[in-house]
Amino acid sequence: MSSIDIQRSHQRSATEVRDAVERLAEKMADRFGVEYGWNGDVMAFERPGVEGEIRIGDQAVQVVAELGFMLSMMKGPIEAEIHRYLDEKLG
């Protein structure tokens, strides 16, 4: 298992951040078959080989995930894509 833990500060409203995370979740669901759901300001997601959460705070977003064996080989590209998306939507 391999872990991802990315925290990014932001200066957006909670609504803007939640909307950006929701759009990301929809893309992950369409592209990779990820299932997700909200519990307050935490969006949990999973599919075979990965599970994690995106936590929305007043000044930061945190993405944590556990990658299974097969996806752990793609940890670098997955992290790069998360950073790119956060830069684009919250930067």
Which short descriptors sum up this protein?
5-stranded antiparallel beta sheet; 3 helices; 5 strands; globular
Record the SSE blueprint:
Elements: E1 2-9, H1 14-32, E2 35-39, E3 42-47, E4 50-56, E5 60-67, H2 69-72, H3 75-90
Antiparallel strand pairs: 1-5, 2-3, 3-4, 4-5
Task: Provide the low-confidence segments as ranges.
Answer: none
Helix content: 40-55%
Secondary-structure element string:
EHEEEEHH
Name the CATH class. Alpha Beta
Q: What is the molecular shape?
A: globular
Structural class: alpha+beta
Question: Could you tell me how far the N terminus lies from the C terminus, measured between alpha carbons in angstroms?
Answer: 30 Å
Over the alpha carbons, how many angstroms does the gyration radius reach? 12 Å
Please state the second-level CATH architecture. Answer: 2-Layer Sandwich
Quantity of strands, as a count: 5
> What name does the CATH topology carry?
TATA-Binding Protein
Strand content: 35-45%
The description of the largest β-sheet is: 5 strands, antiparallel
Strand order of the biggest β-sheet: 1-5-4-3-2
Question: What would you call the quaternary organization?
Answer: single chain
Number of domains: 1
The average pLDDT score comes to: 91
How would you describe the overall organization of this protein?
The protein is α+β, with helices and mostly antiparallel strands. It has one domain (2-85): TATA-Binding Protein (2-Layer Sandwich). The chain is built from three helices and five strands; from the N terminus they run E-H-E-E-E-E-H-H. The chain has a five-stranded antiparallel sheet with strand order 1-5-4-3-2. The longest helix is centred in the N-terminal third of the chain and has 19 residues, at 14-32. The N and C termini lie far apart (30 Å).
